[in-house]
């Protein structure tokens, strides 16, 4: 991604880059003939004069970006799109932005490299966005860190990145609560289906680094086993990939083990719905033989057969908080620019908020004894 | 939504509106003191000088808008967002736009009034969008018609509006195919669950006006009954609202009728999944006692219990076609502007494409005898 600069325009117009800058910022100081030459070069190159757009009129386009890194909201294996947690978050952020009078742009960036950094920075420089909500699959995403350091308003959603403003749900506490509930309903052989390796580093310890959502749910699961006096069994922890298919496969795999689990906690609802289908196909009764718990409390959970016990996070509240937090950063930045305040001072005051989750109990788990 | 004009700026600055226009378009011709006065008024009013933005630099922001009229992608009854056909279309359009190097903005406009027209026109005038894909719930939406008349690139998605470029699926043929399939599998008492009244005008005849998707599916259902020699029964046509809940209620209502249907065709998959749950709760066996057919062929259909027979429309192909068509209109408009061609000539050549649907047969319908 090679970006055009005013030097390219200058070269094409046969003038100095200072002249181009003058045309962009103070056209009244440039002779009409020179202005025309520069304008013709700008048009020919399709050059977007970011600096000009910014300095001529400091217009807010009242637009925010939601950027997903290292992932895709698309189901690449199929032409059929699907209901994912990410879609739901984007829709809910769109609604929260709408209410605040903002438009939300959605972008997927497959890499955390320089090109991605330039891309997002240009959105800011061109005045196309005022702030960014980032969805990352690990803490310390270098693009987000750098944008934050440069003073651009950014909020991380769903990851407890210690270096950034962020909004997260209490994944670890949720994992613990699920195991405790299953234990109280009589389950003793509790299995877990995690997210894919890109979102869940196997072998990471509970004390090491910042966990992803999937890792935090796993650590909560380990906490729960420990609290209930149950021994973790590696063969009962299966890697999934958030899809219906992987939940189906994981449940089938767990059913075919010598010692079959009596409960499966799946890291999201889609995998849990796949598991319900696998158990139905195998003739395993839910919840009498195996209890099933999901995560996300999607609307469909009331209508699955049987209805699905699932962890609820206050997504609407979280999205509204994230947008509010981002708008405050935007306002703060605008004040700083007008007052030439110290940008480092503002960065010290990070806002990092964790929202509580709760378990919604339906028919896929046995009643507590 | 009262829009600011340069007259408001002129009043606030205590100058004539011609002076404001001059400041916006030819600042070099205005005395510095006057320029400052006008700029201060612009800042104070947060006025966005569309005309200036347009005429100063004819920059493409490479952004398209997807605008939904008279509907909402949000589930207003609940904080839990959900997988709707609209979300899927937006996601698929986003992907198609992405591939073409464009960003897609998403907007819901609850009305078809002057304010909505001004809102979208301003997006065009301010250079914030290059084109619009409109999702409408009836043909002849006045906002879309007027924008089209004014020469702004617009494509209607999902509605066969005769006055606009559009992309639709063959809803009527699909309704016919569903009834024929059910008939061949031995069903004789075939019920239909439609969309809500805002999307489906009861009593509209097959020859009258342009049908909505829901109406076209209903007409296809009537065609199918006729072809199979079955008599339409008004009590077997129930109004739903596209939600899981309404499918549940409609199926329960149909089950409690004196003469119970032996098949239910629901206008979308979400209602069909709600119906499967209602039949499960009532102990009615699917498909042996009642067959169930949905519409949209969502990814979940493989995993419902039993898996759901559903109508598939080539959404990805449709979205890619819609984006391609829109980009061609945008290019055409840019050429016209540079050549001062006759805009009426271009409008004569409407592109209107209907995509075929096909029935994906799964376990919620009986095999053909």
Task: Give an overview in words.
Chains A, B: Keywords: DNA-binding, Transcription, Transcription regulation. Chains A, B: It comes from Herbaspirillum seropedicae (strain SmR1). Two copies of one chain form a homodimer. The first copy, chain A, has 369 residues and is of the alpha/beta class. Chain A folds into three domains: 6-56, 434 Repressor (Amino-terminal Domain) (Orthogonal Bundle), CATH 1.10.260; 63-168 and 316-355, Rossmann fold, CATH 3.40.50.2300; 171-313, Response regulator (Rossmann fold, 3-Layer(aba) Sandwich), CATH 3.40.50.2300. Helices cover 43% and strands 15% of the residues of chain A. Chain A contains 13 helices and twelve strands. Chain A has helices at residues 6-13, 17-25, 32-45, 50-56, 85-99, 114-125, 142-149, 171-184, 213-227, 244-255, 269-281, 315-339, 343-348, and strands at 63-69, 103-109, 131-135, 154-157, 166-169, 190-194, 237-239, 263-266, 291-295, 309-312, 352-355, 358-360. Chain A is elongated, with a radius of gyration of 25 Å. The model of chain A is unreliable at 51-58 and 73-80 (pLDDT under 50). Chains A and B meet through helix 4, helix 5, strand 2 and helix 11 of A and helix 4, helix 5, strand 2 and helix 11 of B.
How helix-rich are the residues of chain A, as a percent range? 40-55%
Under CATH, the homologous superfamily of the largest domain in chain A reads: Response regulator
Number of domain units of chain A: 3
End-to-end separation of chain A in angstroms reads 61 Å
Beta-strand content of chain A = 5-15%
> How do the strands line up in the largest sheet of chain A?
2-1-3-4-5-11
Structural category of chain A: alpha/beta
CATH class of the largest domain in chain A: Alpha Beta
> What is the number of E strands of chain A?
12
Based on CA atoms alone, the radius of gyration of chain A comes out at 25 Å
Order of helices and strands of chain A, N to C?
HHHHEHEHEHEEHEHEHEHEEHHEE
């Amino acid at each position: 991604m090679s970006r055009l600069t005013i030097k390219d325009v200058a070269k094409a117009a046969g003038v100095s880059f200072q002249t181009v800058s003058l045309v962009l910022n103070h056209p009244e100081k440039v002779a009409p003939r020179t202005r025309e030459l520069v304008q013709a070069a700008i048009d020919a190159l399709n050059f977007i004069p970011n600096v000009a757009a910014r300095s001529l009129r400091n217009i807010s386009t009242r637009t925010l970006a939601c950027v997903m890194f290292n992932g895709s909201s698309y189901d690449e294996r199929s032409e059929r799109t699907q209901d994912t947690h990410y879609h739901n978050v984007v829709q809910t952020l769109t609604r929260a932005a709408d209410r605040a009078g903002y438009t939300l742009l959605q972008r997927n960036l497959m890499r955390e490299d320089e090109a991605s950094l330039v891309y997002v920075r240009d959105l800011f420089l061109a005045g196309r966005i005022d702030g960014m909500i980032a969805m990352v699959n690990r803490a310390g995403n270098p693009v987000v860190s750098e944008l934050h350091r440069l003073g651009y308003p950014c909020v991380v959603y769903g990851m407890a990145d210690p270096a950034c403003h962020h909004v997260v749900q209490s994944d670890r506490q949720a994992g613990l609560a699920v195991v405790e509930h299953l234990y109280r309903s009589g389950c003793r052989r509790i299995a877990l289906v995690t997210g894919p390796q890109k979102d869940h580093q196997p072998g990471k310890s509970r004390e090491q680094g910042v966990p992803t959502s999937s890792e935090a749910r796993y650590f909560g699961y380990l906490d729960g086993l420990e609290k209930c006096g149950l021994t973790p069994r590696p063969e009962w922890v299966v890697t999934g990939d958030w899809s219906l298919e992987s939940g189906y496969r994981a449940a089938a795999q767990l059913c075919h083990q010598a010692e079959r689990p009596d409960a499966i906690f799946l890291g999201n609802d889609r995998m849990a719905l796949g598991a319900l289908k696998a158990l139905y196909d195998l003739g395993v009764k839910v919840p009498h033989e195996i209890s099933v718990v999901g995560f996300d409390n999607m609307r469909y959970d009331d209508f699955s057969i049987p209805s699905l016990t699932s962890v609820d996070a206050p997504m609407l509240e979280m999205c509204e908080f994230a947008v509010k937090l981002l708008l405050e950063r935007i306002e703060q930045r605008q004040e700083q620019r007008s007052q030439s305040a110290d940008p480092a001072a503002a960065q010290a005051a990070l806002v990092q908020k964790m929202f509580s989750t709760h378990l919604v109990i339906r028919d896929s788990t046995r009643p507590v004894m």
